[in-house]
Amino acid sequence: MSGRIVLFGATGYTGDLVLGAMLRRGIRPVLAGRNVAALSELARKHTGLEFFPADAKDPESIRRLLTEGDVLISTVGPFERFGVDVAEAAVRAGARYIDTTGEVGFVRMLQERFADRAMETGAVLLPAFGYDYVPGILAGALAAQQAGDAGRRLDVGYFTSGALRPGLSHGTRNTLRDGLFLPAVRFLNGRLTEVRMGADVHVFPMRGARGERKTGLLVPGTEVLFLPEEFPQLDTVTVYNGWFSPFSRAISLISAVTAALAQSARVRRVMEKLSSPIVGKPGGPDSARRAKTRTEVVATVAGADGGLLSSVQLTGPNVYTLTGELIAWGAEQLRDRQDLAPGVASPLSAFGLYGLAQGCADIGLVPVDKHRP
Fold it and tell me: What is the percent of the chain where pLDDT is above 70?
């Protein structure tokens, strides 16, 4: 039975992007968050949307919003700090849940804590359904499918076209800073392995008239959690970020030094304090700035001998615009589809490769050879 869609964190930067994407689809969500005055103003602006106060520190305030069949969108992070009780509220209600997290540790936490309970209550949890990490999962699945049973190593690289410098959100800057202190996860020789963030770099061939190559830095990604389940022939899956491609090798060296220094809790606190100006104020790039960049994601699959078997490159809207559109589409699917199996789902297990590819194409995330400027 279809229910309501509740947008938790509606007054934040990402919440605003999700709300805009939903309204363009004709979806009128229930707004939820801590700041009642801001919620009231937002509801008035959009001609009487429902709104209710809710706080991640008060899980019962979220639980009271939900009934079976409702969809809860969570945009409130850091998710490992604030997101667990929010997800549990959805599980207890037998609701459907989707979030914007980029924290792989949080997704693993949901799998460990709530997979069985969600099966009991009928809840569906669909974490990390934004720029982190739907494009890489789609590109990786397409490349693995093309390579077939001979594919062994999958590498996924996230890049952008256009200048990122003036257009990073507060949340992204915070994630980049924290990433210097946290381990990454890769799927190596058939098992998940924790490694240092930036411990490796990889060069990706890029399609286009210039035939350029870009370098990415090893980072976390849910691709390592989900794609080996779908493509068991893969024994290695690694995710890279090349937003600052020319400096990837230098950043890798810096991360090694940072990780060594951060072994001391006292030194880490000092480093975090010194880096706080980098994070800056809340908010993010406006529509004009977002229009200056595009998402570029590349996935390559190699065989046992290291030879390249397949390569898929996707292009799409700016990373923040893309997240808003993906969450809106995913929430609509969660509300309307009754064939989804309960549990902690991946984009592929929820919608299948064909369904995911179609949904992404509808919002402009397509293979490079199908993109028309």
Answer: 82
The closest of 322, 358, 355 to 102, measured between CA atoms, is 322
Whether omega for the bond prior to residue 78 falls within 30 degrees of 0, making it cis, is yes
Output the DSSP codes for 169-212. -HHHHHHHHHHTTSEEEEEETTEEEEEETTS-EEEEE--STT--
Tokens of 157: 């690289």
Mean pLDDT computed over 60-81: 93
Q: 124 with 334: CB under 8 angstroms?
A: yes
CA angle (344, 345, 351) in 5-degree steps: 160
What's the gap between Cα 250 and its chain centre? 25
Q: Which of 295, 372, 331 is nearest to 124 (CA)?
A: 331
Instruction: Judge contact between 90 and 82, C-beta under 8 A.
Output: no
Q: Nearest-CA neighbor of 223 among 144, 151, 322, 314?
A: 144
Alpha-carbon distance 12 to 70, whole Å? 21
Structure tokens at 367: 């293979």
Residue pair 59/88 in contact (Cβ under 8 Å)? The answer is yes
Q: Confirm if 138 and 357 have CB atoms less than 8 A apart.
A: yes
Asked whether 83 and 91 are in contact (CB, 8 A), the reply is no
**Does position 273 have pLDDT exceeding 60, yes or no?**
no
Cα 168 vs. chain centroid, distance in angstroms? 15
Question: Can you read off the two tokens belonging to residue 125?
Answer: 């949890």
